[in-house]
Design goal:
This protein has 164 residues and is α+β, with helices and mostly antiparallel strands. It has helices at 3-18, 22-26, 37-46, 103-110; strands spanning 51-57, 63-69, 75-83, 86-96, 120-126, 132-137, 151-156, 159-162.
Length: 164
């Protein structure tokens, strides 16, 4: 008679060990739900099929940064600003390989004094005019990217220009 309760406990523990943790079964994916509907709509219009992974409102409540994954797997950051109650997309950013940057942009960067091979490149597509700003980061002492871009080159209508 004593064996029955122990057998039941052992079976219950075994079943619990085979089940996914409660957090995986009861917690919905809320990353998109924390982004207001009007912001999410703007993001979806700018990048159809995007999966929103997070969002952050600035302390002044007038800027929003949304992160997500595009259908092709690129990790994106979309920056927007609010004016007169409406959100406007400023730019869409993603990390890219230096080798994928247009040759004219690479040549312009190589022509500056103290040029360098960037260890990180952020491609920032500007919503206002479709231009692309490449933010180039040199390696810090430990080899990781520096804290801020060390050089920016604007690419627009086939022309590259270093941003002072």
């Amino acid at each position: 008679m004593i064996k029955a309760p122990y057998t039941f406990i052992a079976l219950a523990l075994a079943a619990a060990a085979c089940s996914p943790p409660a957090s995986e079964t009861t917690q919905p994916d809320t990353a998109a739900s924390v982004v207001p509907a009007d912001v999410a709509a703007l993001v979806a219009a700018a990048v159809p099929g995007i999966t929103i992974t997070g969002g952050e409102l600035s302390a002044g409540n007038d800027q929003y940064e949304v992160t997500g994954t595009s259908p092709n797997g690129d990790e994106l950051e979309l920056d927007m600003v609010q004016s007169n109650g409406a959100w406007t997309l400023l730019e869409i950013q993603r990390d890219v390989a230096w080798s994928s940057v247009p040759a004219a942009v690479r040549a312009e960067a190589a022509a500056v004094p103290d040029s360098f091979e960037p260890v990180r490149v952020i491609e920032s597509t500007q919503a206002a005019d479709g231009s692309v700003v490449y933010e180039l980061f040199r390696a810090s002492r430990n080899g990781s990217p520096s804290r801020g871009p060390d050089l920016e080159v604007r690419w627009h209508e086939g022309s590259a220009q270093v941003i002072p």
